[in-house]
Protein: CpaF family protein
Amino acid sequence: MIDHSLVKRFRQEVGDRLAHQRRLDQANGLPAMTGEDERQFARALISQVLEEHARGEIGLGRTPPTVEEEEALAAGIHAALFGVGRLQPLLDDTQVENIDINGCDRVFVSYADGQELMHDPVADSDDELTELIQILAAYSGLSSRPFDTANPQLDLRLPDGSRLSAVMDVTVRPAVSIRRARLGKVFLSDLTGNGTISPDVARFLTAAVAARKNIMIAGSTNAGKTTLLRALANEIPPSERLITVERALELGLDQFPELHPNVVAFEQRLPNSEGQGEISMAELVRRSLRMNPSRVIVGEVLGDEIVTMLNAMTQGNDGSLSTIHANSSMEVFNRISTYALQAGERLPIDATHMLIAGAIDFVVFVEKRNDYHVGGTLRRYVSSIREVNGCDGRVLSSEVFAPGPDGAAVPHAPISCMEELAAHGYTLGGW
Structure:
C-alpha cells in the first residue's frame, strides 16, 4: 500500500521545484520545456526528493523505504503530478468504461461487460478530491481552467483521452464523471467487429466520407458518438488538412500523424477570473474557416455555434463531421432549430430548416441499449441513417437505413445520391 500522505507531500515539493525551474528558465530567456522534457525533469526531481527522504529517515534512526516502496512512491508522485492520482489504476484498466464519483468515497465504476461496481475511495477527503481536479484543470488542455467556487463547472480531456466533467458547490459534495476513451485509434472495421455497425453500413459510411458528404452523428449520452466520429475521420485521406473545434480537446486526431499529418486542434477558451479572454465555439468555427481547412470537424454541437457550422457546410467546406445529442435521427432537426434560436442571429425555424437542408447530407443515429440485465451486454449500435432531401417549410428527409429485427440499421429506402456513392465503391442491389 502506498502512503498517500507521503505522495501528497512529495508531489507538493516536486511541483514547487518544477515551478521554480520554470521561473528561472523564463527569467534567463530560455525556451520553455516541452511536455516530455518536463516529465523527464520531474522524474529526476522525484528521485532527488525520495533520496533526501531516505537520508532523513536514516538520520532519525528509522528504516528508509525499500526499493519496491520507493518505486511505488515514485509512480504515485508522478501520477499525482501528471496523471490522475489514485484514479490512475482505473484508467489503466482497459475494461473500465465510466467512473462516477459522488464525493471522495462514493466511487462507482462501469465495465465493458455491463457490470457496475463500487470502488475504493480515490481521495482521503472531498477537499483532496477537489484539489486533484484543480491540478488536472491546470495541466490538461491548451490553457489552465479554473475549478473553484467562482467556476464550479469543469470539462476537460485527461492525458489518456478520457473525458472528465466535474461540479462543485452546486452539489452537496464534489461530483466527477469520467467517460473512458477505450478506443482511441479506431476504424470502421473495428466497429464492424464489435457489432456497432454492419458491413453494409461500414461500406456506406466509407463512401459517404470519400464523397465529402456532411454527416451529423446523433445519439444519447455515452452512446458512442465520438468513437464513431473518430472512425469516420480516420477514413479521410492523410493528404487533407483537418481543423477540429472542441469545448475540451477530446478527439485527438493530431496524436496520430501517420493517419492525419496536417491537423489543427482548436479548444474553446473560458474567461479568466475578470471575465476576460473568452473565445467561444462559434468564434473558433469562424476562425477555422480562415485556416485553409479541407474539412472542419466540430466535436460536439451544444449551442449557438450550430449556425456558424451550418454556414460553413454550405460555403464549400464539404465533408464536415459533427455530433449532437438527440433521441432519434428525426429529432436532430428540431434540436438544431432550438440551438439556432439561441444564437445571435436568432434564426427563425423556417430559415434554420432551409440552412439544414443545404448543409447536412446525412444524420447517423447511434443507439445504446441497456439489456445486460437479461444476460447480454451493453449494446451500442447504429440504428438509423437519415438522408436530407430538401426543404418545404420543414426539413424533408428519408430514412435510408432503418432499425432491423435486432434494432441494427438495415437498408430501408433508396438513396438519392447513389451515383455519387457508387463512384466511391458503394453499391446496393436493386437501388
User: Anything to note?
Assistant: The chain has three domains: 1-82, 87-181, 188-422. The chain has a mean pLDDT of 86.
